[in-house]
Amino acid sequence: MTSEVVAPVQLDFSSPDFSAQLDSLLAWESVSNDSVQEQVKTIIAQVRKQKDQAVIEYTCRFDRRHLSSMSDLTLGADRLQQALDNIQPEQHSALEAAASRIREYHQHQHQQQSSWNYRESDGTLLGQQVTPMDRVGLYVPGGRASYPSSVLMNAIPASVAGVPEVVMVVPAPDGELNELVLAAAAIAGVSRVFTIGGAQAVAALAYGTQTIPKVDKIIGPGNIYVATAKREVFGQVGIDMIAGPSEILVVCDGQSNPDWIAMDLFSQAEHDEDAQAILISPDRVFLGQVQKSINRLLPTMERKDIIATSLNKRGALISVPDLESACELVNRIAPEHLELSVEEPEAWLPKIRHAGAIFMGRYTAEALGDYCAGPNHVLPTSGTARFSSPLGVYDFQKRSSVIQFSAEGASEMGKVASVLARGESLTAHARSAEYRIKD
Amino acid sequence: MTSEVVAPVQLDFSSPDFSAQLDSLLAWESVSNDSVQEQVKTIIAQVRKQKDQAVIEYTCRFDRRHLSSMSDLTLGADRLQQALDNIQPEQHSALEAAASRIREYHQHQHQQQSSWNYRESDGTLLGQQVTPMDRVGLYVPGGRASYPSSVLMNAIPASVAGVPEVVMVVPAPDGELNELVLAAAAIAGVSRVFTIGGAQAVAALAYGTQTIPKVDKIIGPGNIYVATAKREVFGQVGIDMIAGPSEILVVCDGQSNPDWIAMDLFSQAEHDEDAQAILISPDRVFLGQVQKSINRLLPTMERKDIIATSLNKRGALISVPDLESACELVNRIAPEHLELSVEEPEAWLPKIRHAGAIFMGRYTAEALGDYCAGPNHVLPTSGTARFSSPLGVYDFQKRSSVIQFSAEGASEMGKVASVLARGESLTAHARSAEYRIKD
Fold first, then answer.
1. Which among A336, A339, A366, A377 is annotated as catalytic?
2. Is A336 one of the annotated active-site residues of the chain?
3. Which of A48, B15, B249, B320 is most buried, by the most CB atoms less than 10 A from its CB?
4. pTM of the model as a whole
5. Is B305 labelled a binding residue?
6. What confidence category does residue B200 fall into, taking pLDDT thresholds of 50, 70 and 90?
7. Cα–Cα distance between A233 and A231 in angstroms, integer?
8. What domains can you pick out in chain A, each with its CATH number?
C-alpha cells in the first residue's frame, strides 16, 4: 500500500545541525550477521572438499531443484543463442545497441591501459607490462534482481580487456531462468553458464570443482550470502566492490523541468526500499515544485510502494545557498550517481572530486547511463567513490613491473641497496646486491 | 641452530607426479582463526564507540605503554625531521637516492593515468575523470619487520598521485621506535605519525577518532590482527592486498654465476621461515652447482637458521626440459618476484603473463628492486599476480565516468533505454528516459 504522504526530509545547508542531519541521512551499514557468516564458511568448506557433489546438493536444497549431475546445471553457447533467437526483435536490437555503445566506451578505456617503459642513460630499462587475467567469473542474481543490462556491463569490459574466458553463474530457483539474461550473455561473449547461485557458486568459482573452472576474479552483485562469500574468498581470488543500495544525487539550478527531476529521483527509488534519492538546489521554490511533481506523479508509478518507502525513509530535498555549496556537499557525499542538471555543467565538473558517474546537463538522465550511454553502470556506492572507481577494463587487467639493469646501473645501485639492506639487517639482500658491484 | 642439511626439494617437470608435487610446494593459506576474528571485532567496536579513549587503553595494554593522552602518541613533522638529521649521513643519502628513483618511476606511472574523453558526432561527450584520494593511512609494523624501505614504497606513490595527506601509524612497543623508519617518513612526505598499531590503529584510521582522522584507504603490511582488521573494515575504506609470505622464482639458463643465484635465493629465504625461494633451470649440472653454492655460502650468513628452515620447508630446485617450459611454469606459479637470469631476457618477456615484478638479466638482482630500482616492492604474493598488480599511483586515484548527452543523443538513446528498462520492469527508469525523447 502506498504511504499516504510522500515527503522526503527537507534539509537546509545553513542550519546549525545540518551536518549531523546529513550524517544520519547517509548512514548505511550492511547488517553483519554471524549466523550468515557461519553458514557461508560451512558451504565454502564443503564445496572445497566435495566439489561438484556439494554444489549439486546445495543447489537442490536452496533452489528447490531435482537433479543429480552437473551437466543438468550447465548451459552451453547453443542454449544462450537460442535465448537470443527467441526474445522479441525490439529487445534484441536494443540489447545489441546497448552492447555496441558499452563496447566502444570500454575500448577507449582500454587504450589508456597500455604497457610502457623508459630507458635511463646507462641503459637500464624500467617499465610496466599490462596483461589480461586468464578467466573471470560473473555472478548474476536470479529472481527479481536479475538484469540483462548487468550482464552486458560486467562481461563486456572483461572481454574488451582480452580475458579469454568469462564464466557466468546464475541461480535458477525452481528451474526458472530469465531469457533476457541468457540473451545478454550470448551478446556479451560469455563462454559458459552454470545455473547455480549463492555461496556455493562463489566457492566453486574461487576454488574450482571437477566441472566448474577456478577463476581469477569474481564480479557481480548478489544477496547477503553472496556478498559474505565474496568477502570470505577475497585473496584467494580477486573480487569487485561489495555494493550497497543504489543512490542518486541530483544537483539542479532550478531551471530543469520539475517532472523530469522527480522522475529521475523515482528511477533510483524504485530499485528497492533502501535506495537513496537526494535533490540539492539553491532554489527553494524549485524544491517545492519538485515535491509537487512527486505527489502528482507517484500514483501513476507501477512501483509506487517501493518508491514511497524509499523516499520517505532515505530521500531528501536539500536547500543550499549556491551551487558552490552544492559541489562541497557532493564531495562530502561521494554519490554513486551525480546529475548536474544545471546550465553549463562543464564549469562545475572540475570541482567534483568524488562521484562514481557524473551525468551532465538537463538531457543526461541517469537512466540512460544504466543501459546504453556506454560507461559502466557498476559504480561505487555508499560513499566509496572516495576511493574506488566504476567497473572497467582495468579491473580485468593487472600490471607487472619490468626492471632490466645494465652492468653499470647494477653496480651503482648495488651500493645504495647495500647500505639500506644492512640498515634493515638483511645481509643476504646486501650481498646479493654487492655481487653486482664492479671492482 | 642451523639445520645439518640444507636441501631444497628437487623436482622434475617431466615426472608424472610433478603437477601434484608443485601444488603441494605452493600450497599456502593464512591461518584463519576465529578467536583472532572475535578479538578484532571487539577492538573495532570499542574504537568506534570510545574513540581516542579506546585507542589509548589498547595501546597501553598491548604495547606496554604508560600514557594518558593522544598527544603522547602523536609525532609531528619536527620529530620526523629530527630523526632524519640524526641518522648516519651514508644512510641519509642512500634513503634520498632510493626515494628519488622511486619518485621518478611513479611519476612515469602517473603520466599513464590521466583523464580522457571523446565527443560523438551528435555532440554527446563521454569520458573519465581521474582524481586522487583525499587522505590515506599507512600502517608500518613495529619491531623486527619495521622497514624504512616500506615507508618509501608505500608513501611515495600516494604523494605522486596527489593525495594531500598521508597519515602513518607505527606501534612503539615499550616506547621503542625505529629512527630509520621515521627518517624515511620525513623523506616520503608523511604528514603526521601516530605511534599506535594493531587492530586498534586500523579501526581508528577507518572510522576516525577525535584525534586520528578518518582516511579513504589503508595500506601497508601487518601481523594477523592487522590483516584481519583490514579485511573487516574493507568497504568502509579501501585496503591494499593482504600479503602472504614473500617469494622469488629464479629462471636461469645455467650461465649465471651459481653463487649469485644462491645469494638471490637467500635474499628471499632470509625474510622469514615461510618465505619461498625456487630456482628453475633446464641445466641439471647448474642446479647441482647452485646446491653446492648454497651449502658453501650458508654458514657465512647472519640469518642462516631462517634461510635453512625456509629453503628446507618451501624451497625447490626444478629441472625443466627447456626455457619454454620454464615460462609455462612461471605463469602457473604467478610469482611475486621473477628473475629471468638468462641471455636475451627480452625474448622471453612477452611469454610472461603473470608475475608481480620481472627482473631481467644477470645483473638485475631482486634485492635492487627491494630498495632503489624505482618500481614498487609491494607486490602480489601467493599467486595473486594472476589478478593483482604492484602497489602504484593508480591505487591512490579513482575514476569518475563523465557523460553529457546532447538533446539529439538523449532522444535516440532514450528509445533504447526505454525498451531495456521496460524489459526489466523498471518503469521509472523508462519514463525518465522517455521524457528526453523528442516529439
1. A336
2. yes
3. B249
4. 0.94
5. no
6. very high
7. 6
8. 9-28+244-373 (3.40.50.1980), 34-239 (3.40.50.1980), 405-434 (no CATH)
